[in-house]
Amino acid sequence: MAMDWKGVMPAITTKFTQDDELDLQMFEHNLKAQLDAGIHGIVLGGTLGEASTLTEKEKQTLTQHTIKVINGKIPVLVNISEQSTKAAIAAAKQAETDGADALMMLPPMRYKSCDTETVEYFKEVASNTALPIMIYNNPIDYKIEVTLDMFEELLQTCPNIEAVKESTRDVTNITRIKNRFGDRLKILTGVDTLALESLLLGADGWVAGLVCAFPKETVAIYELQKAGRIQEALDIYRWFLPLLELDINPKLVQNIKLAEVYTGLGTEYVRKPRLPLFGTERANVIQIIEDSLRHRPLVPEYK
Q1: d(Cα 300, Cα 135) in Å, to the nearest integer?
Q2: Which of 134, 168, 275, 287 has the greatest number of C-beta atoms within 10 Å?
């Protein structure tokens, strides 16, 4: 499938059973709700997907099962977040073998590589796969920034590097990217609390988190702003913001999984060392979710 870098792409959560096995039934239930809402792609094995805790076999199972359920309707992206270039190349090749349509790639994990090392890492992986690649640029959480000069070098030598998941928290970076690269580098915002701002500044899409629990509202914001119905998009976005802030938190996985429980799209089970929310923290998140559900807006017709 040709990769079209636009629209809403959930960084979908991985569902587990109480016995810490993959819960493919609940995963599929959520996936179908995302498809019904009109998402444009799906991202597997990101931070929200608890990728660092998954075995290679589990990653393959999730990829293959997702491709089967999606059945060619939208692209399936697999996240690559590895500690070594060798492991990243192997993961990219495995994703291609499993049938993924594209990759999302983080810089090397744990080791804080310099600019030259980071560029070489991306180059080597890109040269070992035919899949299109989106670079995940999140220096706040992962301590390595992919600068515009680094993108310049990558775009000159790696035609399959096509997009950036822009998570620097600086929305002016969207204009800088557009000014420098035009449409050569597609932009998907990766910060839920800056999503509408980013889209209005020219981002092509949104790799979203709270979409896992609220797919209809998330897609509506994207589609309404695209149609020029800004006030309607803004009304939903303002309602959504307290929930979206659950995504920019160290316990974003637990937060969003708890929200999924409230909307009937998931369970709270996480893989240790994570634990479900407890105490005051849990009570605070529940209050945000319940308050939001009491005032949940009607999504206007836009299709």
Answers
A1: 33
A2: 134
